[in-house]
Amino acid sequence: MTNNKQVLITGASSGIGKQLAIDYANNGWSVLGCGQNAERLQALSELNDNIKTVNFDVTNNQDVHEKLSELGDVPDLVILNAGTCEYIEHGHIDVALFRRVYEVNVFGLLNCIEALQSSFNSNTHLVIIGSTASYIPLPRAEAYGSSKAAVAYISNTLAIDLANKGVTVSLVSPGFVKTPLTDKNDFAMPMLMSPEFASEKIREGIAAKKKEIHFPLKFSLFLKFIALLPIRLQLATVKRMTGKTA
């Protein structure tokens, strides 16, 4: 396997990951689409001859290491996209729910990085999918938002620590994207985007080797502005935005 126009994508069986796999393949890239749902991966591989699939569960460290080690040479572009989302009941901490979210979003990410890191070199571009939910405190997002805050911290510190190897690290923070996960949401999702739009923005940012990719711009910049406010004002603003009482 050569590394010319090749990309490895986790969480490729649905949502943003699936759309990225399709779009890269349609643009002539060789795609390694990774996921835990064998049936959906099979359907993905049938869409384009440029797509090959690898079936593993990111939360299973041994499985991740075994399947990724079988690849041989790893593509220079690695997009770690696998993620999940669950919301707590208002103010009710459910440790099992937190653990499920963290196992995928944080430890699943780390499992993949651990398995791939020996192949990192000056040509490697590591892309990590976070979320704008990490910017500010949001109702019921204690598990999801905090997991994505951890993802952002890991990504940004790796950008420093891997710089001596010449590795490029990009953090992607999308707003609401219409996926099977967001289809379960029972609340308003401002500026909801299509997977096609999200894929375009991510691919543009990757091509430009941006260290931070966030969109839609009006939404992400608004949240970034709120994050600059003192915490008292942040909380008051979020309460007004979401209709919560002070």
Task: List the SSEs and their pairings.
Layout: E1 6-9, H1 15-26, E2 30-35, H2 38-45, E3 51-55, H3 61-69, E4 77-80, H4 95-116, E5 125-129, H5 142-161, E6 168-174, H6 195-207, E7 212-215, H7 217-228, H8 231-242
Parallel strand pairs: 1-2, 1-4, 2-3, 4-5, 5-6, 6-7
In short:
The chain has helices at residues 15-26, 38-45, 61-69, 95-116, 142-161, 195-207, 217-228, 231-242; strands spanning 6-9, 30-35, 51-55, 77-80, 125-129, 168-174, 212-215.
Rg, rounded, reads: 18 Å
Could you tell me how far the N terminus lies from the C terminus, measured between alpha carbons in angstroms? 58 Å
> Which regions contain 5 or more consecutive residues with pLDDT less than 50?
none
Strand content: 5-15%
Task: Please provide the ordered H/E string of secondary-structure elements.
Answer: EHEHEHEHEHEHEHH
What is the total tally of β strands? 7
Averaged pLDDT: 94
Q: State the major sheet.
A: 7 strands, parallel
Shape: globular
Structural notes for this entry:
The chain has 246 residues and is of the alpha/beta class. 44% of the residues lie in helices and 14% in strands. The chain contains eight helices and seven strands, in the order βαβαβαβαβαβαβαα. It has helices at 15-26, 38-45, 61-69, 95-116, 142-161, 195-207, 217-228, 231-242, and strands at 6-9, 30-35, 51-55, 77-80, 125-129, 168-174, 212-215. Strands 3-2-1-4-5-6-7 form a seven-stranded parallel beta sheet, sandwiched between helices. Helix 6 links the parallel strand 6 (168-174) and strand 7. Helix 1 packs across helix 6. The longest helix is centred in the middle third of the chain and has 22 residues, at 95-116. The radius of gyration is 18 Å and the shape is globular. The mean pLDDT is 94.
